Amino acid sequence: MSNWPTLAVLGHGLDQVYPRQHRGLAEGISAHGLLLSEFSLGEPPRSHHFPLRNRLIAALAQGTLVIEAAPLSGSLITAHQALELGREVMAIPGSIHAPQARGCHSLIRQGAALIERTHDVLEALGQCGLPLQERPPSAPASAEEAALLTALGHESSSLDQLVQRTGWDPDPLLAHLLRLEMAGRVRREQGNRYQALP
Q: Which of 72, 104, 73, 102 is nearest to 89 (CA)?
């Protein structure tokens, strides 16, 4: 579904950006969604903050959908915290040869709902009676975003590759990518890679 706001839960104070190259992304979310943190202003990111952040993510959602998770990843911590809170846990299967799919497969073996399409999420959450409106992705809002979709092509691309192809600075590039992601035109993948959606 497109045009839904993004909510980002941070593992540091709201005045910090981590990683630093995501400043444009943070500004885009702040303008069109919500940045949320339970840490004080000025608190830097620390490794022990992120499990606490994951607990808050699990508590805010009706369910947790794990898209990719290597064994012992933070995504699995979030999934287990969601279970402890009585939330639904769902997972998307991947290739048996992909290390980042092993966590998802483990969750499915443990009873997580297997997700292949939007309707599967609604079914897992017990909302099949609600009208399901699959809307086509909205058109790019600007010539820059149309050019960015062309630069993405059909392959998964890193941020560095997109900077080279477009000649743009990372901050405005991330802001455009966020708008396209929120519009259902781009998917952000593991490793800070982006893929244009058909």
A: 104
**Which residues make beta-bridge pairs with 89?**
64
- Structural domain boundaries of the chain? 7-124, 143-196
Are 152 and 186 a contacting pair, CB within 8 Å? Answer: yes
List the one residue out of 7, 115, 135 whose CA is nearest residue 61.
7
3 state DSSP class of 116: coil
Q: Which two tokens mark 18? A: 């981590």
Query: Using alpha carbons only, how large is the chain's radius of gyration in Å?
Result: 17
CATH of 143-196, one of 3.40.50.620, 3.30.980.10, 3.90.550.10, 1.10.10.10: 1.10.10.10
Burial environment of residue 54 by CB neighbours within 10 A (0 to 12, 13 to 18, 19 or more): buried
Strand 186-189 and strand 193-196: the pairing is antiparallel
- pTM for this predicted structure: 0.57
Mean pLDDT by 10 residues, the chain (198 residues): 75 93 89 91 92 89 91 87 90 90 93 89 75 49 82 87 89 79 76 80
